[in-house]
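Need the bound structure for adenosine-5'-triphosphate, inputs here:
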Amino acid sequence: MKYQKIRGTADFLPEETNKWQYVESKIEYLLEKYSYQEIRLPVFEQFELFARGVGETSDIVSKEMYEFYDRGDRHLALRPEGTAGVVRAYVENKIYGPEHHKPVKYYYTGPMFRFERPQSGRMRQFHQIGVEVYGSNNPAVDVETMALAMDIFKSFGIKDLTLVVNSLGNTASRLAYREALIGFLTPHFEELSEDSKERLHKNPLRVLDSKDKKDQDIVKNAPSVLDYLDEDSKKHFEEVKDMLELLEISYEVDPNMVRGLDYYNDTIFEIMTNDPNFGANTTICAGGRYDQLVEEVGGPATPGFGFAIGLERLVMLLEGIHYDFPQRHQLDAFVVTIGDDVNHEALKLANALRKQGLIVEREFIGRKPGKQFKTADKLNAKMVFTLGTQELENRTVNMKLLSTGKEISLNLDDIYAEDFKEKYSEILRKLEGED
Ligand code: ATP
Ligand code: MG
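Answer from helper R.:
Posting the output first, comments after.
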């Protein structure tokens, strides 16, 4: 029997996790600056939560969900995105209560699951880092959150970023637009794809997002949602644009942009990159405002805003621009052992050095000293501590700084003493010094 990972999933070996840990921690540092807190949620939820939250007619729910019945006959799904779960947790844990500062700002990171055709940058288990803000419909929230997303990509030195924004308007504007869109599409009914025919009355906005070439040609001449915004929505969108200018964030308005999830209203946005090393017009971040979802999921009317970044695509983008990922750790010390007698002492020594704050590895499999030194080199160790039978007898150890080749014999009991930390810096300076 040969076991293989499931199609569309990936193993992350250390070379990869090094990059991911670095990327995640850099993003988390920025999230903290914007005063976000982390929330960790289950990867599976009631199927119905996603059907209601993401929308029955979305591709995600209608085609891509990993849904199943558990042994208790509960209809469940692996989460295809993060927002529905965060909204559920917000409602279930009564985060809307007065003891929570508003707006509430949460971020999450973790795996998402969609049954899609796997290809480069498209997995069945993929990862997102996302944010959600609850409790304010101030357009400044929209702008601060988009600024955060831009900051994240800029912090990695990604160039050629385009922020694309649009407004879907509030419920009243959307209803008016919906009618106009149905009116426009109905004469073309026979030419539409099967999906779009089905969506025409259920959710005509979806037709604008169709991947079908013929659909796309038809919707090119469709009326623009922006012409149907009422006064409130117009004002909201104008303020968003003004404040983007205030922060000197350049943007484009795409009046035909809709999003793959059904819950958005007013501001929606995508961040695209045209980085020549990555491929034209790739969406690397998407999000927007959703003021009805909390209520839809059973909470009090609460405005929301959020976005999600696909981490696979971000890491690929960074690889494409030859991003210089720093090594996570440099090994401070490698303990070379000569002979079986020193096994116990090597254990104690490595342990003591770690207590002093050093990053330490030791020999475990008793290879020839030359091999061990080569390993120390390969692991990029700063120093080698050599323990042999002779040293053990004298209660000493040899410490060698690999960069200068200088060495010194130390008393083991000095290393085990409380105050070794100070002495150690002195010794290091001596070994590093020129003379
Ligand atoms: P696409 O149009 O590429 O299918 P989407 O609109 O379905 O994207 P969202 O649901 O908005 O994507 O998710 C936000 C981000 O998550 C995307 O921009 C992308 O980077 C990432 N993403 C979405 N689906 C996948 C996937 N199957 N594999 C890897 N990353 C994904
Ligand atoms: Mg998709």
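Comments: Residues 14-170+230-320 form a domain with the BirA Bifunctional Protein; domain 2 fold (CATH 3.30.930.10). The radius of gyration is 29 Å.
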